[in-house]
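Supplementary Text 2. Reproducibility record for the structural model of the 167-residue chain.

All settings were left at their defaults, and a single model was retained for analysis rather than an ensemble. We include the record here because the model underlies the residue-level annotations in Supplementary Table 4.
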Amino acid sequence: MPKAKKSEKGKAGRPEAITTEKLNLFKTFIIAGCTLKEACEQIEITPNTWRNYCRRHPDILAKFNKWKKELEARAKLNIAMKITNEKDINSSIYYLERQSKLKEQAAKTALNRARAKQVKMQTKLLEKQLEEIDTSSSKISKTMDNLDIETLEKLANLDVGVDDGAN
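Retained model, structure tokens:
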């Protein structure tokens, strides 16, 4: 009897570890701000089980990423509604202070990246200069190797115009 193809097998084999009920509960934990590990612990699966499930159900991965952002989006919406509908001053102040902090952090990050880039460029320049010095000293060394003893003695005894105060 020939083996049945996967699509013909139907529901034979091990049952899915993540049921619809567990998936809905998992979604709730993720929306609440739990980490993947925390949400998996709550529905009694491992993170690897979740990853394997996502491989078999690629559409769920996009939903998962949406769920992770949902709590923050709802919080932003609540603040915006409170500011616009109720003209709440405290919420407005909170929002403006938060935006100011975010902009300040973005500026610090940009500055740190610029500094890191500058250090990297300075390092490359120094390495290039050291390479040139090594090349020059290598050429001088080779030239010195080619000089005979008599020439070296003459060079050692040359008066190179050093003022010894005898004028």
